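Continuing from the previous page...

OK, I double-checked the sequence for ABC transporter permease against my notes and this is the correct one:
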Amino acid sequence: MNAASPASSSAAASQPPSALKGQLGTYLGLTVVLLGMIALFGSMSEYFLTRDTFISIANEIPALAVMAVGMTFVLIIAGIDLSVGSVLALSAAVTAAAILQWQLPVPVAAMLGLATGLVCGTVTGAVSVAWRLPSFIVSLGMLEAVRGGAYLVTDSRTQYVGDAISGLAAPWIGGISAAFVLAVVLVAVGQLVLTRTVFGRHVVGIGTNEEAMRLAGIDPRPIRIIVFAVTGLLAGLAGLMQSARLEAADPNAGVGIELQVIAAVVIGGTSLMGGRGSVINTFFGVLIIAVLEAGLAQVGASEPSKRIITGAVIVVAVIIDTLRQRRAERRLA
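Thanks. Re-ran it with the corrected sequence; updated structure tokens here:
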């Protein structure tokens, strides 16, 4: 096993020119789509191509971006986590309760919120691994259970924390919040972990062929649990970011956001079948979702219309992913 590990690691680290060309093509394609959407909405609304619009978009996406980083790893191992929106709400609720009811210092309260997300993610991963259950089912159950926990902690009422943790959302550099800078840093770290570490190669290997990983002497179970645990931790961080921006913890926060997270990851090219993905591309997907929502709002699209268009974008992204997968299979055949 030890003799095979360096070889497999170096093979995974050195990507063939075709793979690099494919990555560059994906980057270029996503960039063209993003710029095309900006140009389209800029032509439809005279207020879209303004500094205020882009600062607003940047300050609204940190929570979505950090959750999408974790979801990228989950999809790469051929899993899914539908509970991230509820975990966001519960983590924010615990933080607010720690500040308002338990009178704990803000740093301690924030750590409790992050720990809540970590525990939720760990439970989801451990249950799905221990009983070999589909993560879809386990996370669906966690979605309901954790949402109920958020209602209990907040007594089903919005908890106003004021400016206790508003520093995360406060303007920092040119109006950009610290939360956005932190989200960009986490995207960069996530990409480095995925592409430059042994853990990242194991994540890709599990999504590509889990049985082959077992035969190579690598136990995929702890890796799966770690991926879900980190995803829960990032959802907890997203809860802090959203509470900082709204200065409140709402038990209804994050309802449906898991669909936006998955949409951003899939639009970024991460395969729903597992084994392929990029955190940088996921960030492009987050930007595309954010620009789409901001543009539709500025041109006066109704809420039902926005949901229909966003859903259509998700379906198109899945179709493109399926066609790409079939083309790759034909090429290998």
